[in-house]
Specification:
The protein is of the alpha+beta class. 27% of the residues lie in helices and 30% in strands.
């Protein structure tokens, strides 16, 4: 198990994860980042405004970037069908 930090960024501001999480490698990091992004998007939807300009950057215990997930890649936007 290794320690990974999940930082939330929007191009202007950064919310740093100071605690990190113990996970079993890269696949677990991707799964957690996707889950967290979708949870934030869900909360945004409840308030009526979804921000897809955010991303989660995952760093290892040495503060090396190991994964980055743009919120726009965390969901599929399905437009309405035209008749």
């Amino acid at each position: 198990m290794s320690l990974y930090y999940f930082h939330l960024r929007d191009g202007t501001d950064t919310l740093l994860d100071s605690e990190g999480r113990q996970l079993e490698g890269a696949e677990a990091c991707r799964a957690v980042a996707l889950h967290e992004a979708r949870a934030i998007i869900s909360e945004d939807a409840r308030s009526g405004r979804i921000r897809l300009d955010q991303r989660i950057d995952v760093e290892d215990e040495n503060r090396n970037l190991v994964y980055s997930l743009n919120f726009s890649d965390a969901v599929e936007i399905v437009p309405p069908k035209t008749r």
